[in-house]
Structures are given as structure tokens and as C-alpha cells.
Transcriptional regulator, TetR family
Amino acid sequence: MRNACSVTPQSLRERKKLRTRREIRDAAYRLFAEQGFEATRIDRIAAEANVSTSTFFRYFPTKEDLVLSEDTPARPLSVELAARPVDEPVLTAVRHAIHACVVSAEREPGALERARQRMELIASVPSVRDRLPEAMARPGEDLAESLAARIGRPVDSLETRVLVGAVLGAFREALLHWAGVEPEADARALTDRTIDTLARHLSA
């Protein structure tokens, strides 16, 4: 089986675009930490990243988009979940798929720190938090397809939607907890605690 959340080979142009996106985002996060989200101007972010303002807007329409968009060239969690054995219980499959994604992120310098900063901003900036449902819509639909196939139910069935809501809601709260309460916590251990909580209390 292919390594979960493994990186898809990219062209030189794609790698350059990804590098520019990350440089802009890293510059923005540094400035957000120093000045605050609202006080940080887009032209200041562009200057910090050594790009033009027009280049910033080619990659990110707004500061909120900068925070909420993803740029890791990895297979989505939904795809990794679909790659797990078909006879594996749902929560076990979710646990292993997320573990593999964490391992992949740990290999990339700064990836987990960027994820933590992202969640801090989602938790603390109303204009970012208000757009979180929009940002989660596509990943949620993809996850619904994977879960529906696993449980043998239609994507729009109540059973599938409840599972999607439980998984996404649980991990949204786990990530917010990680960013705001336990930033030093091991991401895999936090995943286990989240899955264990779902399994223990929802099956009681």
C-alpha cells in the first residue's frame, strides 16, 4: 500500500508556486504574531515576503484566504481513508489515516507549526472563523464520499452525514484545543484522545 498522505510528484513550476505561497504565508504569520491580524496590511506582507502586492493577490484574494487555504501537496484525508482496508471499523480507519498524515507533516519542516498558527488565527479572528464552514465544505463532501463507501450508504444519507459531522466536528475542536490550550501536545497522541473520546462516549 502506498504511504498515506504521500506527496504527489510535482513539476518545477508547481514547486515554485508552492514555495512562493509558503513564503507569503510564513511572512504573514510572522507579521500577524508581531502586529495582529487586523493591523497587518497586505502590502506589508508582500514586502516581507519580497513579492509585489499583485503577486500576493494572485495567490490569495484576501488575508482570510491566506489562512484558510491549504497548500500541502498531499493526498487528502478522504483519499487516505478510502485506501484503508474495507473491513476496518470506521474510527480505526480514521485514526490510522490521520496518523499517517501527521507523520507526513512531521517530515516537512514547519508544517505542524503552520497548522498550529492557522488554528490560533481561526480561534481568535472573527473574520477568519466566520469563513471556516465555507473552507470545510469541499473537504467535508470528499470525506462524505469516502465514509459513504465504507458504510455502504448513500452520500446524502442521515448515517453518512452524522458520521461526517462527528468526525469533522471532533477534529475541529481537537485542533482548536491543540492551538489554544496544549500547543506542546503530540499530534498523534491528540488524535488518539479524540478518537477514544468518540468511541467511548458515543457507543456508551
